Amino acid sequence: MPETLKETTADKPEAVAAPAAAAPVGKPRSLWSDAWHDLRRSPLFVVSAVLIVFLLTMAVFPGLFTGADPRYADLAHHYLQKPKWGNLFQEDWFGYDIQGRSIYARVVYGARASIMVAVVVTALVTVLGTVVGMLAGYFGGWIDTILSRVTDIFFGVPFILGAMVVLTSFEERHIWVVILALAFLGWTSIARVARGSVLTIKQADYVMAAKALGASTTRILLRHILPNAIAPVIVVATIALGGYISAEATLSFLGIGLAEPTVSWGVDISSGQEQLRNAAFVLIIPSVMVSITVLAFIMLGDAVRNALDPKLR
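Below the sequence we write its predicted structure tokens.
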């Protein structure tokens, strides 16, 4: 055999097949990064997010959408004037109400009060309900018994009926009175969800390890339990936010919530019921805005739930 054919792998070290390089291992994604990855690809989330951003912009910067004064009344020229659908974003686009005020202007400015009530109430009930649920679920024993029974008492009170009773005790029902009344009665659902989540998480290995290492109760609650128990709370709070918008509108419609001169969708629905037969648009237009807003937050809550719940992946 010729010498050129007798070359061995010892003569050519480079001929030895190099072991395959290990595939690079990326940084593991957290629950929140996985959720955001799914949310960006969810049509439900995209549609609801666009609607909510639009509504929040309208609530914070109403001057971008109309220059009309929502409280300016002109009975001589604008009494129940019908909508002019061709005049987009103009003062007479949605017509005028019984006092000659621009319905379009009141729809734009009414978003601020209605959405503000819902957002602040949601923030308050989320904080209060999460604290109560975490304390009850983590400590157990007599603390859990007392907090759970208090939660059951509040949960047994019909929400709208209880709010009516609370609000009728005030002579002036401005926006903060309505917010506190709804928050006073609305924290129970989140407290139950937080308690159930904490009961499951406190048995986890990382919580046991933190206890064994001597971590304080506050550190365990804030650094280990809260970040892992907050996901279902966020889902419930997002869906509940739309419910608080409808609750404010219902109470205002009944004459117990916000009242003039506050501009809100609920106030306009209440004043429009008197003209339902001959000028239904006065009632229908703010009602449609309430429905769209509630639907947007419910859709957002459903999208967040689908992204955060591993069982739905």
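Residues 1-24 have pLDDT under 50 and may be disordered.
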